[in-house]
Specification:
alpha/beta, Rossmann fold, 8 helices, 6 strands
Length: about 200
């Protein structure tokens, strides 16, 4: 959980996370369309690591924990520093959107231990079956590859439980859009504490 509401600044540093294929990018675009300034950690990684190298490393890093950690040790400090500089008011070549509140999408926010870098964290979650279906049908993975990618991250339900604003993305695009509207109103109200209903 991010810091308490009493210590949050008027314009908070917002983190957005979630499991693979849960819809982080979709939700980020919804916020961008509402005037938020956005920065996606994946875009920074793509700028730092050429596409050919990413393709070569993809299968290896998800099968070899040591290789994955070595890659993260090389990339994560650079990504983290760029996000921090952007939140401090700097420009970034990967930033998009308007002049509203700034939100950074970080898929491995909790895995990397970066939660204290943000004042509030939103988390997009989907069912296990929905994640698998999206990875197989939209990204061309085998079922085994999809399971391997998902196993390399924290369970989305755990991420949601640790976040300030969980977003379910098992419904329609219209429902996700409505969630974005609600989130924008919450941020505009100063991100007051919320009572999360247990299901």
């Amino acid at each position: 959980m991010a810091r308490s509401a009493t210590s949050r600044p008027r314009v908070p540093r917002i983190g957005l996370t979630g499991g693979i294929a849960c819809g982080k990018s979709l939700f980020l675009r919804e916020l961008e369309a509402r005037g938020f300034a956005t920065l996606d950690a994946d875009d920074i990684v793509h700028e730092l690591v050429p596409a050919e190298e990413r393709r070569r490393l993809a299968a290896r890093v998800f099968a070899d924990v040591g290789a994955r950690r070595a890659l993260e040790a090389r990339i994560h400090p650079v990504v983290r520093a760029r996000i921090a500089a952007w939140f401090a008011g700097g420009e970034d070549s990967c930033a998009r959107g308007g002049a509203g509140p700034r939100v950074a999408a970080v898929p491995l926010l909790y895995e990397a231990g970066w939660e204290d870098d943000f004042d509030v964290v939103a988390c997009v979650v989907s069912s296990h079956s929905a994640q698998i279906e999206r990875l197989v049908s939209k990204r061309g993975m085998t079922h085994a590859e999809a399971e391997s990618r998902m196993a390399a991250q924290l369970d989305p339900a755990e991420k949601a439980a640790r976040s300030d604003w969980p977003v379910s993305n098992d419904g329609s695009p219209e429902e996700l859009s409505a969630c974005a509207d609600e989130f924008v109103r919450w941020v505009a109200a100063g991100c007051p504490p919320r009572k999360i209903e247990k299901t």
